[in-house]
Design a protein that fits this description.
Strand content: under 5%
Largest sheet: none
Structural class: mainly alpha
Oligomer: single chain
Helix content: over 70%
Number of helices: 11
Radius of gyration: 28 Å
């Protein structure tokens, strides 16, 4: 805030304008402008009004911008994880409700895990974890998928053998089935 205030004061002085003149043009009190210029802050709308009068732009500092971007990235990642969990839960509901519809999905997932193993394109942890989850009948896989513990599922769901089902026409069907159960 200190740097912003200093920058606005320098811009005002460069424009050869008095505090009274700028405050009046920004429709704020002179004491508000004094607070802003001394780094004590004010509402964003008042800061923007001052900047507009002076013909300068106000933006977040690099540090604030980086922190904001990290916060946004964390929030976006959380939304993505939640969305992925929900999509897998819809698949679990489909498998539990209609084993025949779930069978090709489970078969494709098993093939994907086998390809990971053959090509060594995935970590052994993921391969072994998914093979355990995919063992058994379609309904057993559905139960296991629906009961995944959040502690390890967030990591596993980032590299899922169900991507073929999540990003195909079958997902729409799984969504409809989940919505009706």
């Amino acid at each position: 805030m200190q740097r912003l205030g200093t920058n606005l004061r320098v811009a005002r002085e460069f424009a050869k304008r008095s505090q009274e003149d700028v405050a009046s043009a920004a429709n704020i009190g002179r004491s508000t402008l004094v607070h802003v210029e001394s780094g004590k802050g004010a509402s964003l709308s008042k800061i923007i009004a001052i900047a507009n009068v002076l013909g300068v732009e106000v933006s977040l500092t690099d540090r604030e911008s980086a922190q904001t971007m990290r916060r946004i990235a964390r929030l976006e990642q959380g939304v993505k994880i939640q969305s992925t969990r929900e999509a897998h839960l819809r698949l679990a509901v489909l498998m539990l409700g209609d084993a025949a519809a779930g069978k090709p999905i489970v078969d494709d997932a098993r093939k994907t895990v086998n390809l990971w193993r053959a090509n060594k394109s995935c970590s052994p942890f993921y391969i072994e974890s998914w093979q355990k989850l995919l063992a058994g009948s379609v309904r057993e896989v559905g139960r296991a998928l629906g009961a995944m513990d959040e502690r390890w599922s967030n990591a596993l769901l980032q590299n899922t053998p169900f991507s073929h089902a999540l990003f195909s026409d079958r997902t729409g069907r799984a969504d409809r089935v989940a919505a009706t159960t």
